[in-house]
Amino acid sequence: MNYKSDLDKVLPFVRKPIRYTNNEYNVVKKVKKLDLSIALAFPDVYEIGMSNYGLKVLYHIINKYPFVKAERVFAPWTDMITQMREKRIDLFSLESKTPLNNFDIVGFSLQSELQYTNVIMMLDLAKISFYAKDRKNNEPIILAGGPCTVNPLPMSKFIDAFFIGDAEEGIVEIINIMKEYKTRKKRVEKIAEIDGVWVPEIHKKDKIIKRRWIRSLKEEDFPTPPIVPIGDVEHDRLTIEVSRGCTKGCRFCQSGYINRPVRVRSFEEIKRLVDRGIRQSGWSEVSLLSFSISDYPDFISLLRELNENLKKRRVSISIPSFRGEDFTVEVADELVKIKKTGLTFAPETASERLKKIINKNVSKEAIEDAIRNASKRGWRKVKLYFMIGLPTETDNDIQEIVDMLNYLSKKFPGLQLKAHIS
After folding, report:
1. Contact 294, 234 (CB under 8 A)
2. pLDDT of 289 higher than 80
3. Which of 75, 150, 267, 313 is deepest in the core (most CB within 10 A)?
4. How many CB atoms lie within 10 A of CB 264?
5. Is the pLDDT reported for residue 1 higher than 60?
6. Dihedral (C-alpha) 102, 108, 113, 115: value to the nearest 10 degrees?
């Protein structure tokens, strides 16, 4: 099948054809025949998948090895699915347009339970057997990683092996096994011996698997040079993971528990990565990635040092959502030095009773002060994150969210407040 010719016929009939074309800046293309090939599969569209930091890390780590190549594949949109079925085009990788069923490994990143049906759809489009027990020796090994693997049972019939926890070291162990052993059966057996891996067909349900975690964020694992998308993506900027893990213990937050303990990059390493990443990409914005960014040791000094280095290039800094009490005047002053990026606070609930239950005691007064600091420094748009459906919630608790938003809107009439409810 001539994939380039078939795609040329299909792409004029789909929305955002750039999702399927590749040729981004800094992409890795290995044209020689290699010992091993891995498809990093993200079960959502290109714009979402290319905003995922973990995918970029694994892509970088795998492609450092000369005997293996990693390529990417994302879930096609419904219009492309229709065209692929009609034209009998198998799901393929971006870099080389290789059908997924020709890879040695297809590794899915499970970020949300809502993506599970996309995994099944992608296996179907790739003509790979749905069930692990039905796969033949010439079919890829289907791996899964990501936060959803802490409960692997819902997908256990479809996945050959689950990697639970931080994968930076484990993926190297997996590719070395794949290189040494040639049969599918032997490879799966050996992968099952790796710490942090659960293989349903071998371990059944009585095997205790300990979550894998790395002791430090290594500079050599940072995805550099970063792939620069040529189409719009959700987070179109340089992402620097400044820390991993969180000590807050909010009871609704899976990430806060499964990514412990806290590991922190040094000032100097962050500055090197920012400088290198901007030079290699040309981005005008740097995002500091962390579960609780204000808990970074001496966070205000980090902002000051980065601003000092970035202001000549007109590169701005964006940050994840803040707990309200952490957004001080000093932080606001640093964030507006170059240009104002998006600003988000996460009270989660307006109910004092529910705050105690979920262990997130950020007062309404703290949120109001944070918004006041933002308004004084020129922000005209602020987003607030809330959740509904919390345990013991009543209609009165939800009404408190409405009351809080009404109060803040009247208090700050020149400010546009956006409420995100999940």
Report:
1. no
2. yes
3. 75
4. 17
5. no
6. -50
Non-local (6+) Cβ contacts of 223 within 8 A are 53, 56, 57, 59, 60
Q: Give CA–CA dist 105/116, Å, rounded.
A: 18
The two structure tokens encoding residue 2:
């001539």
Task: Tell me which amino acid residue 355 is.
Answer: K
What are 166-193's pLDDT values in tens digits?
999 999 999 999 999 999 999 999 999 9
Which residues lie below 8 Å from residue 185, measured CB to CB, with a gap of 6+?
A: 137
**8 A C-beta contact, residue 77 and residue 15:** yes
The encoded tokens of residue 414 equal: 């020149």
- Residues making up the chain, counted from first to last: 422
Q: Which of 335, 411, 401, 346 is nearest to 374 (CA)?
A: 335
